[in-house]
Design goal:
By secondary structure, the protein is of the alpha/beta class. The chain has helices spanning 7-20, 27-34, 36-40, 69-75, 88-99, 112-119, 131-137, 147-157, 173-176, 178-181, 200-208, 227-237, 248-260, 265-280, 285-307, 309-314, 318-347, 350-359, 364-376, 379-389, and strands at residues 50-54, 57-63, 81-84, 104-107, 128-129, 140-143, 166-169, 190-196, 213-221, 240-245. The model is unreliable at 1-46 (pLDDT under 50). It binds NADP nicotinamide-adenine-dinucleotide phosphate (NAP).
C-alpha cells in the first residue's frame, strides 16, 4: 500500500485524536465509547461492575473504581502479600502494590535482579527475603517466577502453603498443565489468577500515569468463599484498570496461542515472507522494509489500534481498498489451518512440553541466544535498524 493512500486517513485520525484528548486517560472507555457503548449505554457510569455488549455478546467487566483505596486496604489489612520474582511482572506488580499502600514483601534469589530490587527500595530482612522465606511469611503468595522455575521450586514451596493462604499466578500455565508441572495445590487454599494483558513494564508505566492496564482474572479454587472478591481487589492492587473474568484454561490457551500467532510468531512469519518476495523481485532492502514493517508499525497499526480495521478499510484509497478486500481471504484461508494446528498443539500440551523441556536445560540461554541472533542478523531487521535511524525523531542522533 502506498503511503500516499493514507495521508487523508492520517489527517482525519489526527483530528479525531485531538478532539478525543480528554478521554485519553481512559483508553478502554474511549474505545468503547466510539463503538457500541454510544448507543447501548447512553447513561454509562464509570463506577461499578458492568455488563457490556462485545460485538453481540454480553460480558461482565470489573473496574478499578469497584475497589477504591480504602476497600483495597481493608481487604488486605490482615495479609502479607509475598511477591515471588522480580522479573518484568514481579517488579511491575510489586511496585504497584507497594505504592498502593498494602503490606507487600518480595521474594527474590540473590544476584543481579536482587541488587536491582535493593536499588528500588526493597530492604533485605525487612521486605526482601529469600524465596522460601517469603512464601512462609506470605498469606497471599504471588508466584511471578519464570514458568519453568515454578515447576522446579514447587516441591519446596508446597508445604509452606498452609490452610487459608492464597496462591496467585499471572498465567494459567503451571496449574492447567499440572500433568507436566506436577503443581497440584493443597485443597484448603485459594488459587487465583490475574493476568495483565501486556508486559510488566506497561503494568508499571500505566499505573504511574494514573491509568491501568487491562487484565483477566480467574478463580481455580475457592477455599475461603471470598476468592473472587479478593482476586478482583488484587487485580486492582497490582495495577489493572479493567478486569475480565476467565478461567485458568482459557487464559493459558489464548495466551500461548496469541503469542505464537498474531502477536509474535505469525507476524514475524508474514513480515519475513513479504520482505523476501519483494527482495526476490528486485526491490531494495529499504523499500522492502518500508513497505512491510515501517508503514505498518508507524502509520497503519496505531490507527487500527485506535479505530479498528473496519475504519482502516473505509479510510484508505479505493485502490488500496479493492486490493485489500480481494486479498484478505486468500491470506485467511492459507493461515487458518496453521492457526488450527497451533491451537491443537497448545491444548494437547505439546507447546508446554517443548517450553518446559527447552527452558529448563542448563544451556538454554546460550541456545536461545543462537536462535535470537539468527533473527537479529537477518537482513530485514538489519535494514530496519537503518530505517529507524532515519525517523524524524531520531534524525541527527547518530
Ligand atoms: N499475563 C501476562 O500478560 C503476562 C505477561 C508476562 C508474564 N506473565 C507471567 O508472569 C510470570 C512471571 O513472568 P516474567 O516474565 O515477569 O518473569 P520471568 O522473566 O519469566 O521470570 C523472572 C523471575 O524468575 C526468577 N527465576 C528464574 N529462574 C530462576 C531460578 N532458577 N532460580 C530462582 N529464580 C529464578 C528470576 O530471578 P533472576 O532474575 O535472578 O533470574 C526472576 O525473579 C510468568 O508466569 C509469566 O508467564 C504474564
Amino acid at each position: 500500500m502506498a503511503s500516499r493512500a493514507f495521508t487523508t486517513a492520517l489527517r482525519t485520525a489526527a483530528a479525531a485524536t485531538r478532539t478525543a484528548r480528554p478521554m485519553m486517560a481512559r483508553p478502554m472507555v474511549s474505545a468503547l465509547k466510539q463503538s457500541t457503548l454510544k448507543t447501548a449505554m447512553p447513561a454509562m457510569q464509570y463506577r461499578g461492575m458492568k455488563t457490556l455488549n462485545f460485538g453481540g455478546t454480553e460480558e461482565t467487566v470489573y473496574e478499578r473504581s469497584d475497589v477504591p483505596k480504602e476497600k483495597l486496604l481493608e481487604t488486605f489489612k490482615d495479609d502479607t502479600i509475598a511477591v515471588l520474582g522480580y522479573g518484568p511482572q514481579g517488579r511491575g506488580q510489586a511496585l504497584n502494590l507497594r505504592d498502593n499502600g498494602v503490606n507487600v514483601i518480595l521474594g527474590q534469589r540473590e544476584g543481579k535482579t536482587y541488587q536491582q530490587a535493593i536499588e528500588e527500595g526493597w530492604v533485605p530482612g525487612k521486605n526482601l527475603f529469600p524465596l522460601l522465606d517469603a512464601v512462609e511469611r506470605g498469606t497471599v503468595v504471588m508466584n511471578l517466577l519464570s514458568d519453568a522455575y515454578q515447576k522446579e521450586i514447587w516441591p519446596e514451596m508446597k508445604p509452606l502453603l498452609t490452610p487459608g493462604k492464597t496462591l496467585y499466578f499471572s498465567h494459567g500455565f503451571s496449574i492447567v498443565y499440572k500433568d507436566q508441572t506436577e503443581i497440584i495445590p493443597p485443597k484448603d487454599i485459594d488459587v487465583v489468577l490475574v493476568a495483565p494483558k501486556g508486559s510488566g513494564f506497561t503494568v508499571r508505566r500505566l499505573f504511574q500515569e494514573g491509568r491501568g492496564i487491562n487484565g483477566s482474572f480467574a478463580v481455580y479454587q475457592d477455599a475461603s468463599g471470598k476468592a473472587k472478591e479478593r482476586t478482583i481487589a488484587l487485580g486492582v492492587g497490582v495495577g489493572t484498570g479493567y478486569l475480565y473474568e476467565t478461567t485458568f484454561e482459557k487464559e493459558v490457551y489464548s495466551d500461548l496461542f496469541g503469542e505464537r500467532g498474531v502477536l509474535m510468531g505469525a507476524i514475524q512469519g508474514l513480515f519475513q515472507a513479504q520482505y523476501e518476495v519483494l527482495r526476490a523481485n528486485g526491490h531494495s532492502p529499504s523499500e522492502a522494509f518500508n513497505e512491510t514493517v515501517e508503514e505498518a508499525t508507524q502509520s497503519l497499526y496505531p490507527l487500527i489500534g485506535e479505530r479498528g480495521m473496519d475504519w482502516m478499510y473505509s479510510n484508505c484509497s479505493t485502490t488500496a481498498q479493492r486490493g485489500a478486500l480481494d486479498w484478505w481471504r486468500p491470506f485467511h484461508d492459507a493461515s487458518k489451518p496453521v492457526f488450527e494446528q497451533l491451537y491443537q498443539s497448545v491444548r494437547d500440551g505439546s507447546e508446554t512440553a517443548r517450553s518446559l523441556d527447552r527452558n529448563s536445560q542448563a544451556d538454554y540461554r546460550e541456545k536461545l541466544e543462537e536462535e535470537l541472533r539468527e533473527i537479529r542478523e537477518s537482513e530485514i531487521w538489519r535494514a530496519g535498524q537503518t530505517v529507524r535511524q532515519l525517523r524524524p525523531e531520531n534524525a541527527g542522533k547518530n
